[in-house]
Design brief:
mainly alpha; 51% helix; two-stranded antiparallel sheet
């Protein structure tokens, strides 16, 4: 079972918080970072909430370098595959930028984690994170992506990556792309062909022959019917 399938199961189970911490990562494709803002309004906000959102949209928290680092990291967590695009394709970095301004307690852990990652790369490879090659990027991420296997001196990085991974998964799987990726259909009507005859017989009941061809006709099942003043189906 691959990483994306693991994420689907975790996000639809009751163990999301604990299990997300043990998911692995795969190599990232080339990333084209484009910074933009999340859409305004249109999702049932109160006037006060809309005013707050407007203020948030006018602010900038992450630097261009930090945004570029996040763009690479989120695509390591959720790269593109044959099913859907990557975390960047779903504008997850924009989501994280919004979240750190909407919920300031995220700011220090994420910015501190990016600084920690940068320093680790400078110490190990002699270059910053953005200038490391793909192998080096995955090597350092593997050191913090598996909490149970991480060395004690990597605990800060583990906490940072846990937070980033949770935000990335939340951002991706709450978009149209992520929802389609999971195959989630939501409140979609199915095809109903009536109560099984054996069940009806068990309770001594029968389908109403007068309406049987109306409410069990599959090709018109989703058509809204009309009723007369006495509660009878018209047509």
């Amino acid at each position: 079972m691959d990483r994306r399938e693991n994420l689907k199961i975790i996000l639809t189970s009751g163990f999301a918080t604990s299990l997300l911490l043990s998911i692995g990562c795969k190599p990232t494709p080339k990333i084209d970072i484009q910074t933009s803002q999340a859409p305004k309004n249109g999702y049932g906000r109160t006037p006060d909430e809309m005013e707050k959102d407007e203020k948030i949209m006018e602010e900038t928290f992450f630097t261009e370098k930090e945004l570029a680092m996040l763009g690479i990291l989120v695509d390591i967590i959720i790269p593109a595959d044959e099913v859907s695009g990557s975390a960047n394709d779903a504008d997850v970095v924009d989501f994280i930028e919004f979240m750190v301004k909407d919920y300031p307690p995220f700011q220090v852990p994420l910015r501190g984690g990016l600084m920690w990652l940068e320093n680790q790369c400078l110490s190990r490879y002699g270059v910053g994170f953005l200038d490391t090659n793909d192998g080096q990027k995955l090597e350092i991420i593997d050191m913090i992506a598996y909490p149970d296997k991480a060395e004690a001196n990597m605990k800060f990085g583990v906490r940072f990556f846990n937070t980033l991974r949770n935000l990335t998964c939340t951002g991706f799987f709450t978009t149209e792309m992520g929802i389609k990726d999971m195959g989630y259909l939501g409140n979609t009507p199915n095809q109903w062909d009536g109560v099984p005859e054996e069940v009806m017989a068990k309770f001594g009941l029968n389908l109403d022959e007068k309406y049987k061809d109306v409410y069990l006709k599959l090709d018109t099942q989703h058509t809204i019917v009309s009723w007369d003043e006495n509660g009878n189906i018209i047509g």
